[in-house]
Amino acid sequence: MGKRIVVALGGNAILTDNPTAQAQAEALQRTAEQLIPLIKGNDVEMVITHGNGPQVGNLLLQQLESDSPKNPAMPLDTAVAMTQGQIGFWMGQAFTKALIDNKMSEVPFVSVVTRTVVDANDSAFENPTKPIGPFYTEQEAKEIQIQYPDWKIIEDAGRGYRRVVPSPLPLRIVEAEAIKPLLDAAVLVTVSGGGGIPVVEEDNGFKGVEAVIDKDFSAAKLAELVDADELVIFTSVGDVFLNYGKPNQQTLGTVSVSEMKKYLAENQFAAGSMKPKVAAAVSFVENTGKVATITSLDNVTNFVKSGAGTRIIPD
Predict the structure, then answer these.
(1) 190 near 50, Cβ under 8 Å?
(2) Please, is 83 exposed, middle or buried when counting C-beta atoms within 10 Å of its C-beta (0-12, 13-18, 19+)?
(3) Where is the Aspartate/glutamate/uridylate kinase domain (predicted)?
(4) What value does the mean pLDDT take over residues 233-249?
(5) pTM to 2 decimal places
(6) Catalytic residue, candidates 193, 194, 196, 215
(7) Is 243 noted as a catalytic residue in this protein?
(8) Is 2 a catalytic residue?
(9) pLDDT tens digits for range 72-87
(10) Coil, helix or strand for 303?
(11) Protein fold of 3-120+170-313
(12) What's the rounded Cα separation, in Å, for the pair 41 and 70?
């Protein structure tokens, strides 16, 4: 068995300024090509996870626009499942082509619809924080709020206004044990899309709940459950910085987990962007004693060659 890594992709790997299906599929084609160097040496098993915040928010708007007694809008958990299948299809198309183009057609690909167990009493249900859907101007946000008074809309990291929904912490991935044999068979797998479909455990199974789970925390939990050797979180920003955007901005290279926890406590990272990625990486390192890396897709070649990026290591 080769090195096993779990890769978490941000929304920038899927959605560009053009929200059409064709544009998103094309963006994923570029992403697939960028990820091929990770497995080209045939000594790495790669599991891919991805976000779905923009897609699930857009889908919910489409659902609401067409809502009627004969065609009722689907709830949020079902919308997460729908986008998981949608993005999984695009990924299958993209990776099949990338594998063929790189003379690796023997590598099979599968996308697994995945459920993620959360605590029904998680405080996140009382405090929505997960941005979904499109960005709005301040005026548009006011108009949307009037139209949907039960929505919570906040300013998102200086980029505009977005709807936020509950984002409970993942406790486990229902399909994790079923995924392991696929990895043992060297199958390239996409799982836990959009953080997974949020469910709570009941006596006779599971029940879907209205939430969107943070994909980085789900990726960390998945990496732990499938015995990954490393968690790799790709962001549009790239490496992690202290004092981001300030004159004394400083890139972080290799950092111990205790040092990174200190930076988290100092609120060095923006809540809507880098903070959850760092916190998820820290949780994986703490729970497994293994390494997590945060970097950009543009840095894949350097990561493969030298492990470039912000690496969080055990103490």
Answers:
(1) yes
(2) buried
(3) 3-295
(4) 88
(5) 0.91
(6) 215
(7) no
(8) no
(9) 989 999 999 999 999 9
(10) helix
(11) Carbamate kinase (3.40.1160)
(12) 53
Write the CB contacts of 149 (distance below 8 Å, at least 6 apart in sequence). none
* Residue 279: both structure tokens together: 């916190």
Q: Going edge to edge, which strands form the sheet with 310-313?
A: 109-111, 188-190, 44-50, 3-9, 230-234, 291-295, 310-313, 254-256
Band (1; pLDDT cuts 50, 70, 90): low
Question: What are residue 45's DSSP bridge partners?
Answer: 4
- Catalytic-residue membership of 180: no
Q: Which of 10, 193, 277, 309 is catalytic?
A: 277
Please write the tens of the pLDDT for every residue from 161-185. 999 999 999 999 999 999 999 999 9
Q: What residues does each domain of the chain span? A: 3-120+170-313, 129-165
- Asked about 130 being catalytic, the answer comes back as yes
Contact partners, residue 299, CB within 8 Å, separation at least 6: 238, 239, 308, 309
Q: Is 277 a known active-site residue?
A: yes
pLDDT of 262: 96
CA distance 94 to 157: 31
